[in-house]
């Protein structure tokens, strides 16, 4: 953890006039989590993300304004099940002595969530629970007019009761979105944000029930190439580890044309909740590919090809003449040996009786 961040946090206390940092919890590329407590012993948490305009090439005011807008849109969702809450927030510009600030700490008060860690094959029943929880969280957000735009595994959290919750990082910008889980239409100017979320949700489930591989991705092959092929419209098969009914459901979420997908998340949840979980499909466990084998080709340096002699190249003239002379000498020598052998054979037949 960045010690300078810890020092800055102590200068911000008390947060929202009543909270004090208790301890560091965890961190990832979406920020650092700290537990909070007040004078009465109540518990809470804060996530801190430091944005730096010098790294992303955008004015600090633009970055913080976009974050504030997104957090304000999330505040009405606080306390809803299967969603990461945002209860309070503040933005603190980091002092830049003698010059305007170029970085800021964005602090969002939230609840106790843990990162979603999926380093091995998730049990089938747990995978179905994740699908159900995230589907219900997205449905709730859509009902209140909030869309995510970045539905992907790294934005899944686990609450204190073991439920899977969907997060919506405050730094999301459509222009900088990761295309890995994006719907094809998100790269156009005008599209349905709700239908795009349905696609991303389906794509995330596709990977979950396809052994960890994205559509068109094969073991050891590049994820980037698979994403490029998908966005270019190349068709793909249903996820290998899903039973037929779940596979059809996922494929409908992932239809390339928005009008061919489910109408809304209410319809998505009705369909998903109607699918039985009475048995574990054999292919679910068989198709799993460990993380270290999914993108092996991406990190593997190509081996240098052995240099082969070019047989079409001509030899130097002097060497060519020398070779022809040697061949002629050998032929003459063989001819002389043949004649001598024949003469000896004739002499043996007629004169050595």
In brief:
With 353 residues, the chain is of the alpha+beta class. The chain folds into two domains: 1-111, 2-Layer Sandwich (Phosphorylase Kinase, domain 1); 116-298, Transferase(Phosphotransferase) domain 1 (Transferase(Phosphotransferase), domain 1, Orthogonal Bundle). The protein has helices at 3-12, 53-56, 60-74, 124-143, 193-208, 223-231, 244-253, 265-274, 282-286, 291-294, 296-299, 317-351, and strands at residues 20-28, 31-37, 43-52, 88-93, 103-110, 113-115, 156-159, 164-166.
Supply database-style keywords.
353 residues, Phosphorylase Kinase, domain 1, Transferase(Phosphotransferase), domain 1, 2 domains, 5-stranded antiparallel sheet, 3-stranded antiparallel sheet, 12 helices, 8 strands, elongated, serine/threonine-protein kinase, transferase
End-to-end gap:
108 Å
The helix/strand order is HEEEHHEEEHEEHHHHHHHH
Q: How big is the Rg?
A: 34 Å
- Spans of at least 5 consecutive residues whose pLDDT stays below 50 are 297-323
Largest beta sheet: strand ordering: 1-2-3-5-4
CATH superfamily of the largest domain: Transferase(Phosphotransferase) domain 1
* Integer tally of domains: 2
How many helices?
12
**Coarse shape:** elongated
By CATH, the topology of the largest domain is: Transferase(Phosphotransferase), domain 1
GO molecular function: ATP binding; protein serine/threonine kinase activity
Domain Protein kinase: 19-275
Pfam families: Pkinase (PF00069)
Protein name: Serine/threonine protein kinase
């Amino acid at each position: 953890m960045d010690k300078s961040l810890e020092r800055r946090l102590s200068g911000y206390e008390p947060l929202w006039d009543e909270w004090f940092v208790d301890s560091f919890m965890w961190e990832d590329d979406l920020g650092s989590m700290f537990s909070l407590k007040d004078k009465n012993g109540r518990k809470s948490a804060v996530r801190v993300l430091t944005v730096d305009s010098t790294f992303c090439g955008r004015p600090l005011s633009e970055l913080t304004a976009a974050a504030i807008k997104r957090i304000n849109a999330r505040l009405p969702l606080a306390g809803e099940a299967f969603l990461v809450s945002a209860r309070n927030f503040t933005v603190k510009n980091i002092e830049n002595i003698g010059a305007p600030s170029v970085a800021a700490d964005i602090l969002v008060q939230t609840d106790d969530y843990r990162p979603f860690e999926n380093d091995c094959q998730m049990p089938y029943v747990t995978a179905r629970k994740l699908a159900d929880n995230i589907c219900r969280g997205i449905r709730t957000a859509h009902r209140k007019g909030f869309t995510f735009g970045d539905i992907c595994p790294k934005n899944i959290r686990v609450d204190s009761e073991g439920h899977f919750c969907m997060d919506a990082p405050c730094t999301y910008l459509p222009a900088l979105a990761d295309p890995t889980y994006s719907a094809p239409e998100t790269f156009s100017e005008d599209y349905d944000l709700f239908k795009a979320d349905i696609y991303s949700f389906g794509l995330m489930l596709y990977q979950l029930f396809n052994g960890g591989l994205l559509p068109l991705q094969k073991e050891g092959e590049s994820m980037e190439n698979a994403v490029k092929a998908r966005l270019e419209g190349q068709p793909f098969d249903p996820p290998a580890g899903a039973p037929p009914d779940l596979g059809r459901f996922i494929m409908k979420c992932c239809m390339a044309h928005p009008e061919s997908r489910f109408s809304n998340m209410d319809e998505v949840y009705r369909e998903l909740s109607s699918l039985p979980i009475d048995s574990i499909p054999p292919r679910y466990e068989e198709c799993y590919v460990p993380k270290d084998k999914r993108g092996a080709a991406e990190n593997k340096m190509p081996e240098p090809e052995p240099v082969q002699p070019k047989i079409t190249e001509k030899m130097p003239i002097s060497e060519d003449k020398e070779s022809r002379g040697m061949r002629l000498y050998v032929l003459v020598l063989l001819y002389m040996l043949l004649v001598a052998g024949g003469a000896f054979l004739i002499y043996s037949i007629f004169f050595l009786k």
